[in-house]
Amino acid sequence: MRSRSPYDIANFTTESFAALLATGNHVVALVAVGSVEPHGPHLSLITDTVISEAVAARAAVLIAGLSGHSLSPVIAPSVNYGVTDCAAGFAGALSISAEALTMYLRAVAAALRGAGCRVVCFINNHLEPEHDRAVRAAAGPGVIVACPLTRKWARTLSAEFKSGQCHAGEYETSIILAAEPSLVQQSTQAALPVVPISLSEGLAAGKNTFAAMGMAHAYAGNPAAATAAEGHEMIERLAAMVVTEVVSEITGA
Ligand SMILES: [Zn+2]
After folding, report:
1. Which residues, including other chains, have CB under 8 Å from residue 127's CB and lie 6 or more apart?
2. Separation of 203 CA from ligand 1 center, angstroms?
């Protein structure tokens, strides 16, 4: 059982949520977005959602601690399903259409804005381009996306992330070791060989699936090198990304 952040909406009743709105603070809704996707022989199918939730939990603490902006973070329920066509052919890939995802995210954002949230921030860590586009298409006034798939944020992350050899490799495995170690099959992880395949290069070359790129076991990179310490550091950097995006939305910067 995952532990809940104190800012999780699960901890609110209708009365305490009304009381939060009555403070006059800007309520910032953080919504983790993930996928149900094969992540090698050692990581959970829900890895991307767990990453986004860990980042949301840390970002909420940072947002609550900011002075001068009167922000109150709330972690709203996650969006667990995404566009997962790259993993086609591997068991456990549950893909929904880009149109369905965008429409659903727009509806979720409208509900949160209608409920009094000043900013809705979708935190996305499933980096398939079609999925990324579908999430970004839900952005609008007061609705933003924090995702490390831009040069600005990617450069703050690890060398493996920047190489594109980063599906269920050192980067993602480290984050799960930090966030929820019971979701890493550690005896399997420790024995996995490096798979030097860059997803960004594969996609650029027109190879649209893990299978076409030669990822025989649905991972790339070096999962055996993962550590919880690296994972905590990556969560910190991803949380800083969220805070920066939220503050720039509030301040119009
Ligand atoms: Zn992933």
Report:
1. 147, 148, 149, 199
2. 16
Say how many Å lie between the CA of residue 174 and the centre of ligand 1.
Answer: 12
18 alpha carbon – ligand 1 mean position (Å):
36
Token pair of 188, please?
């399997």
For residue 197 the two structure tokens come to 């395949």
- CB under 8 Å to 54, separation ≥6 — which residues? 175, 178, 179, 180, 235
Q: What is the CA radius of gyration of the chain?
A: 18
* Residue 234 CA, ligand 1 centroid: distance in Å: 14
Report the amino acid identity of residue 177: L
Segment 52-57 mean pLDDT: 98
The alpha carbon of 125 and the centre of ligand 1 are apart by a number of angstroms equal to: 7
- Centre of ligand 1 to C-alpha 44, Å, is 10
Backbone angles phi, psi at 249, to 5 degrees: -65, -40
Q: Considering the domain 9-251 in this protein, what is its CATH number?
A: 3.40.50.10310
Query: Residue 38 C-alpha to ligand 1 middle, in angstroms?
Result: 8
Residue spans per domain, the chain: 9-251
* Eight-class DSSP state of 75: E
Residue 27 CB burial class (10 angstroms; 0-12, 13-18, ≥19): buried
Cα(171) to centroid(ligand 1), Å: 9
Instruction: Determine if the pTM surpasses 0.85.
Output: yes
Which pLDDT band holds residue 1 (cuts at 50, 70, 90)?
low
